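FAQ

Q: What does a record look like?
A: Structure on top, sequence underneath. For example:
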């Protein structure tokens, strides 16, 4: 995620096929267009009394070419909001601010900035005719009215064409079309796409040398001043008791769990926190608690892996998604991950099957640039909102990130295709063909600080994901940029940490100053993690 003013340019648009049934309603007197997201493919049934996700749009018209303003306007219920425009190649520079009215209290928020810098994928997915330029989405919580103002700035002389406000109601977990029982695409049951996930043809080389000056962690406050509840500081593997609102996986494992189960049962039950947390419980079987000391030796001075071959559309067969035991003897145990079915992904939104890489050479860390004042029980709804926004507003095939982490340290599966497989995401333009993306819910550029639980969860997840491909989380890797990113030109060699921030590869402030400064500590913790390969 990134703020306004980035330099990278977007790819041109072409066409693709979308399998989506949408009911459109125009609210009388408001001009709000409502799209009910209740598509017919990919779901396995749902509760007919539940509320499905909906995308509401409101045109931002006006005569002033440099400015658009929307007075306070009543709307249908929404919780996530952003602005979008017709041409994804039109890279907007300026300011966009919104205020929202709480549906519960009736009070209005202060003006809040929307961030810019979303970039369409560097594949056919990003060339689809329905792909739009857009801001980052902002979580506002349940709201029923909005006020907005957009002003062109910098080199811009006008706001983009067909500017509109996009408001997302994430619905609830039981909405129509949402996967049940672990049978959705997020568990890797679908066939890979016929189109290869190409774009980067150059090979990648890895140096086993730790990341130099980054080896010493930067001191970052352990807790954010903004969270409404204190998250636990326990390691991510010690899962708290879920609240009534949080998604709780079934006690019986699904046919296709998103990650392999650990090889042995834990010897003790995880301890309960001092107060009732709100984080969802990702797994019925707790993952074995990682040791405090290093579980793997420090990286050697010799390279630890061979160069990566060109990406393919087939996932590696050594790591079948959902299997309880891996055929690869070196595969580490997986951290607890909330599946797409358990956070309520509407699989009917996803038109095309996933694409796969041959190997994951790096992990890019992001933030969602939203609010930090969310309750961890809201994390599934926030992710459902982002899924709907990425598909209905951005025009992508699926959610862009491979994983999410919330401030309580809970890990969520992102893009469909199998958490343990090298799914090609849409998170770091120019480097999606080599990497996985994990995004921390919240804003870590404007005062927010990542919690200890969140940092540990990112470290363990990165160690596990890279370990599946024999990549050292404390090493460096040389990758070839597949597009002009504002940091690297197309074809330029980029030497990056195997656990890098979004800004390392793309012109953006993501993942925010506070989270970026914590990356040396996260890399070191990943190297010591019990999940490191």
């Amino acid at each position: 995620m990134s703020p306004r003013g980035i330099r990278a340019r977007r790819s041109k648009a072409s066409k693709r096929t979308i399998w989506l049934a949408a009911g459109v309603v125009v609210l009388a007197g408001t001009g709000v267009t409502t799209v009910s997201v209740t598509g017919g493919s990919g779901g396995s049934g749902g509760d007919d009394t539940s509320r499905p996700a909906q995308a509401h749009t409101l045109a931002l018209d006006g005569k002033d070419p440099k400015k658009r303003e929307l007075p306070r306007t009543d709307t249908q219920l929404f919780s996530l909001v952003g602005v979008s425009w017709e041409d994804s190649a039109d890279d907007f520079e300026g300011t966009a601010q919104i205020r929202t009215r709480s549906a519960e209290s009736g009070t209005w928020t202060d003006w809040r900035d929307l961030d810019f810098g979303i970039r369409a994928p560097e594949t056919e997915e990003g060339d689809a005719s329905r792909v739009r330029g857009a801001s980052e989405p902002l979580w506002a919580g349940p709201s029923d009215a909005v006020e907005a103002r957009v002003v062109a700035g910098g080199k811009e002389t006008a706001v983009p064409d067909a500017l509109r406000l996009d408001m997302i109601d994430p619905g609830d977990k039981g909405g129509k079309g949402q996967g049940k029982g672990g049978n959705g695409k997020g568990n890797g049951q679908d066939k890979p796409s016929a189109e290869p996930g190409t774009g980067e043809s150059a090979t990648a080389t890895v140096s086993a040398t730790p990341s130099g000056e980054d080896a010493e962690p930067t001191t970052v406050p352990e807790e954010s001043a903004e969270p409404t509840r204190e998250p636990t500081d326990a390691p991510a593997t010690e899962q708290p008791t879920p609240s009534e609102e949080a998604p709780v996986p079934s006690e019986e494992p699904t046919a296709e769990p998103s990650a392999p189960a650990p090889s042995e049962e834990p010897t003790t039950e995880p301890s309960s926190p001092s107060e009732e947390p709100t984080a969802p419980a990702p797994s019925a079987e707790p993952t074995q608690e990682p040791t405090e000391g290093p579980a793997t030796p420090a990286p050697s001075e010799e390279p630890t892996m061979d160069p990566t071959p060109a990406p393919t559309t087939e996932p590696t067969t050594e790591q079948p998604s959902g299997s309880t035991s891996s055929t690869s003897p070196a595969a580490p145990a997986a951290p607890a991950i909330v599946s797409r079915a358990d956070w309520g992904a509407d699989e009917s939104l996803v038109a095309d099957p996933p694409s796969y890489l041959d190997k994951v050479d790096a992990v890019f860390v992001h933030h969602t640039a939203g609010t930090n004042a969310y309750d961890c029980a809201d994390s599934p709804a926030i992710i459902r909102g982002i899924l709907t926004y990425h598909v209905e507003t951005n025009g992508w095939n699926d959610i862009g990130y491979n994983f999410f982490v919330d401030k309580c340290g809970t890990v969520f599966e992102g893009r469909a295709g199998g958490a343990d497989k090298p799914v090609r995401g849409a998170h770091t333009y120019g480097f999606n063909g080599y990497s996985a993306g994990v995004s921390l819910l919240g804003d870590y550029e404007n005062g927010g600080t990542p919690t200890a639980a969140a940092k540990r969860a990112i470290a363990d997840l990165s160690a596990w994901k890279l370990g599946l491909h024999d990549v050292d989380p404390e090493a460096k890797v040389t990758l070839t940029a597949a597009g002009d990113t504002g940091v690297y030109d197309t074809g330029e060699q980029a030497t990056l940490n195997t656990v890098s921030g979004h800004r390392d590869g793309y012109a953006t402030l993501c993942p925010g100053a506070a989270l970026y400064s914590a990356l040396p500590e996260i890399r070191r913790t990943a190297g010591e993690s019990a999940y490191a390969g």
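Q: Is there anything notable about this one?
A: The longest strand covers residues 67-85.
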